[in-house]
Amino acid sequence: MIIKPKVRGFICTNAHPGGCAKNVAEQIDYVRSQNLDGETGAPKNVLVVGSSTGYGLASRITAAYGFNANTLGVFFEKPPTEKRTGTAGFYNSAAFEARAREDDLYAKSINGDAFSHACKQRAIELIKQDMGSVDLVVYSLASPRRTDPETGITHVSTLKPIGEAYTAKNLNTDTQIVGEITVEPANEEEIANTIKVMGGEDWALWMKALSEAGVLSEGAKTVAYTYIGDQLTKPVYGHATIGRAKEHLDETAQMLRDSLAVEATVSVLKAVVTQSSSAIPVMPLYLSILFKHMKEEGTHEGCIEQLARLFSECIYAQQPRIDDENRFRVDELEMRRDLQASVEEVWPQVTTENLHALSDFAGYQAEFLKLFGFARSDVDYDAEIAPMVDNAFIDLA
Ligand code: NAD
Questions:
Q1: Which range of residues forms the domain containing residue 82?
Q2: Which strand (E) or helix (H) includes residue 164?
Q3: Where residue 235 falls among pLDDT bands split at 50, 70, 90?
Q4: What is the model's pLDDT at position 281?
Q5: What is the pLDDT of residue 88?
Q6: Residue 53 is assigned to a structural domain of this protein
Q7: Are 262 and 256 in contact, with CB atoms under 8 Å apart?
Q8: Best mutation site among 55, 87, 223, 272 for ligand 1 pocket (most ligand atoms within 8 Å of CB)
Q9: What is the mean pLDDT of residues 300-305?
Q10: How far, in Å, from the CA of 96 to the mean position of ligand 1?
Q11: Does residue 94 sit within a domain?
Q12: What is the tens place of the pLDDT at every residue in 44-84?
């Protein structure tokens, strides 16, 4: 099969197995080059929930290739058929497992709905059987919907402001037209549903299930990820439904610290291009301007750079960078006031005509395509490649 990108709006409906494998290899090389060292220990047995793309994949790679950890990954991805490619996360995970096998690193994966009881139970069985216990649990799920395992009700999250409608500058990444977007405020039900999906309830269910099954090591750590952002992203993130869900995540961390013997910490990461962030209005234009500035000053980072720093400068550091709400921070380069001020200065000036001069939209677009294994100079996209890949995933999907 010849595989070229099929982009529809803010999603790409196919993926290139060869490109995805190269992306994984590149992240492995990066982590190895960093010679990471934990001042207060190192992860040995790690569970990553949401391990196939974005920040979760980078977490898994950092644990395995930065610290030699055994990893169990959980994700929800579509397998390929002879006629259709699988999702990028499927290919990333197959490539990661194949590489880990070559390198004698334990790596198993469950492809299933992490929100379900069955998935949690299967993970617990595997931990018991192969690892005994886990000392780090990374919770990196991003999903538009969640079926509550108790009620069977499926909740759908929304990306809407709270209180008032907002009108903001927005880039249509398909047409490359800079226009405006108006989003009406969320009602109470939409806020509650977003908290159900993206808040901390499922993180807590995972941690309680692991604790009750006796598969958490003594002094086990757990992290879940959040974004805070500044003025430009406030109407779509901080002061919006997703921000409210993330407040619930903060409350959950506190509850987990109080009720279970675990070090639960929300970690604040920078804005990057992932399948989830590209769906948030305003984000693609914000990221395009941000990238231009951060690349110019040499501080640009993607998922793997962020995760390598999160592990070495926060999770396993003697003096972690922590804020007054007990959150680890590795977003400090993005949040610098002078940098944000430069992005805010450019923001009102950007138009369709000057988009490429004032922002790094080309860089944004290349990173977006790369998520799916495309836009790599070392892959021949005119060559035939089989969509099917070997894998040993435990299939609960
Ligand atoms: P992503 O879309 O790249 O990854 C989501 C992961 O969740 C994938 O592995 C996917 O398979 C898995 N998943 C989704 N639904 C699932 C289900 N039902 N069962 C099992 N697995 C499922 O997302 P991301 O951007 O890496 O986000 C991960 C976390 O990081 C989120 O909490 C997000 O809010 C946070 N974060 C993201 C950014 C950003 O800019 N992207 C910034 C800061 C924090």
A1: 7-147+198-275+302-331+370-395
A2: none
A3: confident
A4: 85
A5: 98
A6: yes
A7: yes
A8: 55
A9: 98
A10: 17
A11: yes
A12: 999 999 999 999 999 999 999 999 999 999 999 999 999 99
CATH number, domain of 203, equals 3.40.50.720
Burial of 22-41, coded b for 16+ CB within 10 Å and e otherwise, reads bbbebbbebbeebebeeeee
Does residue 285 sit within a domain?
no
Query: CA torsion angle for 324, 273, 84, 22 (degrees, to 10)?
Result: -100
Report helix, strand and coil shares of the chain as percent, to nearest 5. Answer: 40, 20, 40
Q: Is 166 a catalytic residue?
A: no
Output the CA 384–ligand 1 centroid distance in Å.
Answer: 31
Question: For the purposes of burial, counting CB atoms within 10 Å of the CB of 129, is it exposed (0-12), middle (13-18) or buried (19 or more)?
Answer: exposed
Tens digits of residue pLDDT in 157-180: 999 999 999 999 999 998 999 999
Pocket lined around ligand 1, Cβ cut-off 6 Å: 50-56, 74-77, 89, 113-115, 140-143, 225-227, 269, 271-272, 274-277
Into how many domains does the chain fold?
1
Catalytic residue among 237, 286, 316, 364: 237
Residue 136, in any domain of the structure: yes
pLDDT in tens, 348-373: 999 999 999 999 999 999 999 999 99
Q: What pLDDT, on the 0 to 100 scale, is given for residue 276?
A: 87
